[in-house]
Amino acid sequence: MSDIRTLTFDEIEALATKALIASNVSAQNASAVARSIAAAERDGQAIVGLSYLPTYCDHAACGKVDGHARPRLETLSAAVLRVDAGTGFAHPAIALGLHPLTEVARQCGIAALSVGNSYACGSLGYFVEELAGQGLVALMTANASPSIAPFGGKTPFFGTNPLAFGVPREGREPLVVDQSSSVVAKVAVIDAYNRGAALPDGWAIDANGVPTNDAAAAMEGSLLPIGGYKGFGLALMVDILAAGLTRSHWSFEASSFGDCEGGPPRTGQMIIALDPKLFAGADFSARLEEMLGAAQETPAVRLPGDRRLEARKKHREGISVPAAVVETVERYAREGSPKLPKQ
Amino acid sequence: MSDIRTLTFDEIEALATKALIASNVSAQNASAVARSIAAAERDGQAIVGLSYLPTYCDHAACGKVDGHARPRLETLSAAVLRVDAGTGFAHPAIALGLHPLTEVARQCGIAALSVGNSYACGSLGYFVEELAGQGLVALMTANASPSIAPFGGKTPFFGTNPLAFGVPREGREPLVVDQSSSVVAKVAVIDAYNRGAALPDGWAIDANGVPTNDAAAAMEGSLLPIGGYKGFGLALMVDILAAGLTRSHWSFEASSFGDCEGGPPRTGQMIIALDPKLFAGADFSARLEEMLGAAQETPAVRLPGDRRLEARKKHREGISVPAAVVETVERYAREGSPKLPKQ
Q: What ipTM was reported for this prediction?
């Protein structure tokens, strides 16, 4: 039997939906999360795809995330919207605000969507790409449970605190930048640990602040921010935008995204959308293509997101997933998470 | 005779104003630039202080920047303002928009100030700190003449493209993050070159893309972005916000900030201001202090901007500047820039 199974986007989405529903998630919430899981697999981001889904299911089953939460949208001002995720999944909460955000951004030229009391949102690129697909420039931040030590410190304090940026392109898929404030995302360390692989230099320090290549020691220690104090500065900025301004837990107060302890993490997301037509007129797209074209004059140059678009193209006929991963999710789809209370 | 001269903030401001006016800058424009020069010296950022002023004067004298430009403010929408700097200095252009921006941000909760057709603005922290002093959270980007190669490339394409972030603090000076997308700002390489000092590892590559410690070779080559492709992603984001959305030259189109060739660089700045009271309610400040206090539990931890605040404190009684630097500026104040056309 093959170690690889090939599935369509729709099959992955359906399977993920089933596994979530079986793990105590409402159909509507399951659907929003499952779509992002299928998109991650399609875009070659397996690390936040099907292999990550059991964590979502376990967290719904143990109550770390409320699978039946109904996010509530409020209007704070002419240009600011807020969604309270109610300790539910981030995906349906963001989905609820995304369409109103596009309308307000077109009216005001700039607008913000604050999502508070929320949970891990997976790939930020997924959301900014949707806004860029609507013709808007989008900036998004999310905070997370602690994994980066402050500059000069040893103990995790900020989350990997990613920043994403989406820009519409004429007749092409949007340009998407999506990067954590740490050298790598925490899921990459967990992935190395699960595979028994050593970490490259410069990824992490152990609990004593000493650089380490050992994934287990890194999980006890801290991830390193990109560029030393500069990555720390970014993580701090992201925490203030994504948690401070969304009335959510700071990273240092958030329970772990990785286990069932400590109740809901109550982290947050902030999305700012700008209308490039208002700012820069109708020739924004043509000017952007001039710049991106010039950047790529050297064939070796890669734009952010290039690998994602290549994976997406490759996966048009089917998405290959390790059979063991599919089987695990199929078991969740049949039986629900093992963390569900016994009947 | 001492190698050091000690001046007050006001003396530096007055001297810088005189040197600019003598170099073909209007009194009003000179005053806005001179204030930022004095603030840089006060804050221990000598690299964009008096020693940088002769470049401003030379550029006004040779026409790279129009010292008599009168920036124009327009309202693009309920939440978006634009200033056309008219190839004049960035400081008076930003100053013109800053107060209206605070009003619009308080009305709408979020607002943007686009400054186009502009010039180098020195320290971004200077401007976001002013907004934070008005109770707003501020995010600012600026693009610059090329110094960073694209990821995979060898030739400078993006500017050092800094990003700054200012946050109000209750009863204290604002929190300010201000950092370039490159490992160091270009002025630091020029400074090393002028001092005949070797560059540390990891700052730059030469014209062939090979890592170098030679400041002269680095000036022919490229600065390295922070965290490899992540700094490149940031520089790209900054270029789109600060140039693309402000109808300015992309970094790759901008003439050098370092010499008199190629006419005005026509770069841009983008400032986004958010009202934390609207987003997060009255307890935003108290919550922020909880987080910043927790971050500093380890005595070795330094927050971004700490060094600036220490320098500011130290300089309350007087600011020490190398005598040679003061003498050069005094010569400019007497005679104007040597680049002025002969009478």
A: 0.96
pLDDT mean over B151-171: 93
Collect all residues of chain B within an 8 Å Cβ-Cβ radius of residue A288. 240, 244
- Do B252 and A80 make contact, defined as CB atoms within 8 angstroms? no
- The Cα–Cα gap between B264 and A184 comes to 40
What pLDDT digit, counting tens, does each position of A169-200 carry?
A: 999 999 999 999 999 888 889 889 999 999 99
Domains and CATH numbers, chain B: 1-62+316-343 (1.10.1530.10), 71-182+225-295 (3.30.1370.60)
Q: What is the pLDDT of residue B197?
A: 96
Tens digit of pLDDT for each residue in A48-60? 999 999 999 999 9
To the nearest whole number, what is the mean pLDDT of chain A?
A: 95
| Test the B interface: residue of A274, A285, A289 with most B CBs within 10 Å | A274
A160 contacts in chain B (CB < 8 Å): none
Distance from CA of B13 to the nearest CA of A (A): 30
Residue A333 C-alpha, separation from nearest chain B C-alpha, in angstroms: 37
Strand order in the sheet with A110-118: A72-77, A80-84, A110-118, A267-274, A137-142, A163-169, A172-179
Which of A237, A251, A253, A289 has the most B C-beta neighbours within 10 Å, making it the best mutation to test the interface with B?
A: A237
Partner-chain contact B298 A150, CB within 8 Å? yes
Angle CA(B55)–CA(B59)–CA(B62) in degrees, nearest 5?
135
What is the overall mean pLDDT for chain B? Answer: 95
Best probe of the A interface among B110, B141, B278, by most A CBs < 10 A, is B110
d(CA B128, CA B115): 14
Neighbours of A58 (CB within 10 A): 20
Instruction: Please give the Cα distance from A64 to A260 (Å, whole number).
Output: 6
State CA B68 to chain mean position distance. Answer: 21
Calculate the CA A103 to chain-centre distance: 23
Q: Could you tell me the CA-to-CA distances from A273 to A84, A153, A166, A288, B80 in Å, in that order?
A: 19, 34, 9, 17, 12
Percent over 70 (pLDDT), chain B: 99
**pLDDT (0 to 100) of residue A62:** 96
